[in-house]
């Protein structure tokens, strides 16, 4: 081996060694950070997440998809509260709200198609309009009287799709609406808390990246099922704004719901979310009491989106919750529960 060759090999070895050392250092730093977080006092350590069970039902939709439904609370209650969960979540995301209301109100919670325990739908049926149709069929089957609709993120969009397709239900059957951490459109313009230039690049490459992951969903899912420190940190940062006080048990609970959502489902629904635009349908909600809640640090459906909804609904009550991110119903359950009880009182007057 010549001197020049030995020098090149040495340089290459040094680069690889430095890179390996960097990766090892980053891994140790990540584990150290997660370890420190998990050692903090955890107020939710004994909370029975995933253990609140209602009376299980199944809704077979008009296009043949079986949806998992749970009915809770007294059957003879004069008002039903219907919970519609968000993207990559399931009905368990309403844990605190179900716990708070189940003794006094009839509750219907459901897993949206392809989420939770509901059946997978074809990719072409992963649309917000189809979710609105599912909600209409759910009301017909499991809600015999007046109701209040509560939607978080994609669940709020589902309610908007219902308003667009079945406006006659609002004011008669549907007596009130809560829209939590959601948007009426233009999600493709959000910054995700990133600098404008970086955000623009992310939005440009994201559709192709998500589509590619979807095509390799089974392979990707095999690496997701065990969970990871990275997934924990991402969920904590995006879902809870990296709050220093958020419970590690709560973060694990949220991350487990996200992880249980197949990568193909994430890819199937992504275009529908980016193309969602129901601002013109919001006037349908104007006759009924409406509560709008958003965390002031929500990067997925930022406060500007809730303000746009409120501008279209001048009689609605808008609440921006300080130091709160996207998973507001889990991060600030007391605030959300109080808002829902206030909405129910307005409906029952």
UniProtKB/TrEMBL annotation:
InterPro entries: AB_hydrolase_1, AB_hydrolase_fold, Carboxylesterase_BioH, Epox_hydrolase-like
Keyword Magnesium belongs to the record: no
UniProt keyword annotations, A-Z: Hydrolase
Domain AB hydrolase-1 positions: 80-333
Coiled-coil ranges from the UniProt annotation: none
Domain of life: Bacteria
A GO MF label: hydrolase activity
Record's keyword annotation contains Hydrolase: yes
Pfam families recorded: Abhydrolase_1 (PF00561)
Protein name: Alpha/beta hydrolase
Organism for this UniProt entry: Nonomuraea montanisoli
């Amino acid at each position: 081996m010549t001197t020049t060759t030995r020098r090149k090999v040495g340089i290459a070895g040094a680069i690889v060694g430095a890179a390996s050392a960097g990766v090892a250092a980053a891994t140790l730093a990540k584990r150290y950070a997660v370890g420190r977080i998990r050692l903090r006092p955890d107020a939710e350590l004994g909370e029975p997440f995933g253990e609140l069970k209602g009376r299980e039902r199944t809704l077979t939709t008009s296009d043949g998809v079986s949806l998992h439904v749970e009915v809770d609370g007294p059957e003879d209650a004069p008002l039903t509260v219907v919970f519609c969960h968000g993207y990559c979540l399931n009905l368990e995301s309403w844990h605190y709200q179900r716990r708070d209301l189940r003794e006094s109100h009839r509750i219907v919670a459901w897993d949206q198609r392809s989420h939770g325990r509901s059946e997978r739908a074809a990719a072409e049926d992963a649309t917000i309009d189809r979710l609105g149709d599912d909600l209409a069929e759910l009301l017909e089957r499991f809600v015999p009287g007046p109701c209040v609709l509560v939607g978080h993120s994609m669940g709020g969009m589902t309610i908007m799709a219902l308003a667009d397709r079945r406006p006659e239900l609002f004011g008669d059957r549907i007596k009130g609406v809560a829209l939590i951490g959601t948007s009426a459109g233009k999600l493709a313009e959000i910054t995700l808390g990133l600098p404008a230039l970086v955000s623009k690049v992310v939005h440009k490459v994201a559709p192709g990246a998500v589509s590619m992951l979807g095509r390799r969903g089974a392979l990707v899912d095999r690496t997701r099922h065990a969970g990871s420190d990275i997934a924990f940190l991402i969920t904590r940062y995006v879902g809870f704004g990296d709050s220093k006080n958020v419970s590690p048990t709560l973060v694990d609970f949220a991350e487990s719901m996200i992880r249980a959502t197949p990568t193909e489902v994430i890819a199937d629904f992504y275009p529908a979310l980016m193309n969602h635009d129901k601002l013109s349908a919001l006037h349908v909600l104007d006759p009924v009491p409406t509560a709008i809640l958003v965390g002031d640090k929500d990067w997925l459906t930022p406060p500007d989106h809730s303000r746009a909804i409120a501008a279209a609904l001048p009689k609605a009550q808008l609440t921006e919750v300080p130091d709160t991110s996207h998973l507001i119903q889990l991060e600030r359950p007391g605030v959300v529960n109080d808002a829902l009880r206030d909405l129910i009182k307005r409906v029952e007057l």
